[in-house]
Amino acid sequence: MSPVADKYDFFFKPRSIAVIGASRQPGKVGYDTLKNLIDDDFEGKIYPVNPGASNILGLKAYKNIAEIEGEVDLALVIVPAEVVIDTFKELIDKRVKGAVVITAGFREIGGAGVQREKELAEICRGKIRVIGPNCLGIIDTNYNMNASFAQAMPLKGEIGFISQSGALVTAILDFAVGRGLGFSKFISMGNKMDLDETHFLEILGDDEKTKVIIGYLESVVDGRKFIEVAEKVSRKKPVIIFKSGVSAEGTRAASSHTGSLSGMDRAYECAFVKSGVIRARSIEDLFDWAEVFASQPLPEGKRLAIITNAGGPGIIATDKASEEGLTLASLNSNLVGKLREVLPPAASVYNPIDVLGDADSRRYSQVIELVSQAKEVDGELIILSPQANSQIEETAKIVSNYSYTSPKPVIASFMGEDRVATAFSIFKRGRVANISFPDRAVRAMAVMANYSMWKRQEKPETYRKDIDKEMVEGFLKTKAEEGKIRLVDFEVRELLDICRIPTLPTLLTYTADEAVDAAQEMGFPVVMKVYSPEILHKTDVGGVRVNLRIPEDVARAFEAIMVSVRRFLPQVPVLGITVQKMVEGGKEVIIGFSRDPQFGPLVMFGLGGVYVEVLKDVKFALTPLSRKEIRELVTGIRSFPLLSGTRGEKEKDLDALYEVIATVGTLGERFPEIVEMEINPLMVKDKGEGVWAVDGRLILRGEPG
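Given the sequence above, the corresponding structure tokens read:
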């Protein structure tokens, strides 16, 4: 056993359980929970507690916890919410180690429930560990413990499941029976007042009976802790999470490009990527993937062989493989020759291998045997579309036997329902992953291959830039003393200069004559922009003029900007107009970060300029960043060819760009006073010519709302 598992033995291997609120009335949660413990042969002692009963379901009942003679490892609390706190005082006096609070009526109802949960947490702190409140309970199939009010004990297996929704657990239990999926542990977390997803990931990560962990999450309690624990566990076994709450309504209103493009769900997506967690986009995916991980070895690579008796499904699988980043294995000439010997002339001996609609079990067996020996194949998908001549049961037995002994993953896709029902039964008994539709089966194989590659890679080292901490702190302190929250243009340039990010010559002017003098001083061409912390989208209000090449143009631009801005935003103060040396050539990009309340700094990179929110060609990553993550931010945008050199254009200075991203990430990580930061645009010149920060924006801590 592991130290983590041992630490929580009183939850999953209790020697005794007290059911506080046990009931004699069928249909009541207190009755169903007690009956589950009895019917599923829990081997420890069971103590029903009910002040109005002397015997429940053949067991001696106790009026209160203090009456129980022996020690109690675990309590199941199923009393009205109003008496839960008094119940816990008794549990603590009895020195009960852990409690599962099934009772609802706490934080989830708001108002008085929030205060009740706070009081309960305070009473329990340091004295007793708690799962819940407002949960379904917990199940450990290897210990015959169904400490829940679920209708039935799930099949025994190697999938560990954690859920923030109790109702979802009951539906999944029913669904899993139909697919023949077995579980090691079921954990309904409820409100997560004490123990949360990180504790349960650690427990399941160290559980020898659990091969794959799946979960349903709506939120996490501690984002940074989640990443740390999930990454550690994912290195040992796959963690698959279905995360809900991804709609736009869940995102916060933001006052910068970076904030408005980030949003709540992006941070979770980045957290999953960083920690190696596999994100399922549907319950269907969750169980497809759980099934293949629980039953199949990991592939060594991404080369897939498809064996099918129907052309259409083979094409569907081929298209999906390309979409998911798998490659069709290129079969060696010797194998192709042997396939020709055993297949009819009309069959396709290339990948996908079409054994034709009249294929019997012997033909499938011959092809599977030959393909299994090919070193160029990392995994196999075996498709059967039921035809008149299909020997479904015999073919299923062949696939099952082969899958059991194969060192490579084998996924079956026996399509249909009624006609292939006998195959489903064989696959259940033989622990064969069968996914009814080939596109889903291919996706499952791709998920396995991607995880296998991630698991074999060493954890990349964090790359931080050496930033003058004292100067940055001095800058931030000065702005705080001045009451500054939104910083633009010159004030941002101060910070960029401290961090050695190149900036362009820029002067603030208050009259047309001053603007002309500034332009002549720095040299034409120039760009002019309205200067106001309140105006984010300068172009939208006519606050920008570019490519100004003569004094007359500058003078006219000054007046035009002032008139336009006053027309669009008459109440917004204009502090002046900046004149800036114009950079010719180069590509505009945006770099910034926003501070997610759960996960911390979320760095963004993408195509910049005025169309950043229209095109939304951006990528995100959570700090701390590695060199690999920085490169992937840049190469992951759709418009990366514009930076790497395309259609005769020169490659841009990617090395200089990477350094700026690293600097921005380091600022976000080390200086929590900065809520949001943005450089837009950053002009990336040709390779070897560096970068220039053209405009920027900072939001410091303390902004109302």
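The first helix runs from residue 3 to 7. Try to locate this feature in the token string yourself.
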